[in-house]
């Protein structure tokens, strides 16, 4: 079956109750397992009005065919200027001047500006460049495991997953060690909505100012040293007038935040999926050559990129049979698309032999994740190293005690207590 083939019909299941309008996407039961709700939404139709914890109303696209089409729909733009006043009142919560200075990165741009800006970063993340980095990535993974306790228990987020992606990112983009050591992972939370009246607003704004000062230091360092790496090339492009200061700062912001936290979360979702399927975990440990295909299935099965960022129609229009007003936010559920039974046979089964596997975990179209090749290598190396060097690796808490992050768009956990027999 190809991406262009029509999806086969699936017999809808009877439901005892109808979906609310809007559908609330919030609460611990939803965050711990959104897939039953996504199944109901897919069966009821491809587009639904939803409500986020911030009070934002949006239109959620849930089926594979509709999601794939939306990700390639030229009518749906990413620029925040398209958002209407209803959306802006609750969703555009980063204050000025920071919003204008840090929010003009690739995720919020449309062609031709998006095309121009993306051209500056693609060479740093090509499969060839990633393969050149692989030995160094393996060294980083081993060093972190060397620092774990000789026997369990241990928290694999605090001891591994929170550090590994950022260390790899620093190598890939040319962030010097002295600056990398100063990065506060807490700054990444500036992408999580905190409204103007929220009691946590002062903490949010302190994070924002801290990150902005850090970006200024990175730019200053690269301008002084003239390094021939991604960060150095971006600063040089700014100095040649090919990027504005806001574009430069925003692209560094995106690299630092989007370039590491999703991989941290994907390591946790992949491990949890394997812990819930111990036979598959044992097989993967015994057959490391299976890792590339297994990672694709783990990405499909429970993606850290649960939902995409906002898209907007420039005028009222039809979206898969639903009339959507101009400037309302449209969001694609990648997780719902990746469990669509019309595209993936037995979608709720973790099948490490699944092929083909045209999942949408990295999106699709012009906004396909430019760092996908690097993320794939990180996941292969992280999982392979953990399974090889921590025999008997298992979850050290009850499954129901896993605390899933409350982030609106992502899936993962901030803590992952594990046990293992010994550290090899």
Automatic annotation (TrEMBL):
Residues 1-25 are annotated as: Disordered. It comes from the Bacteria. InterPro entries: Cyt_P450 (IPR001128), Cyt_P450_B (IPR002397), Cyt_P450_CS (IPR017972), Cyt_P450_sf (IPR036396). Keywords: Heme, Iron, Metal-binding, Monooxygenase, Oxidoreductase. Pfam families: p450. This is Cytochrome P450 107B1 (P450CVIIB1). One of its GO terms (molecular function) is monooxygenase activity. CDD domains: CYP107-like (cd11029). Belongs to the cytochrome P450 family. It comes from Streptomyces himastatinicus ATCC 53653.
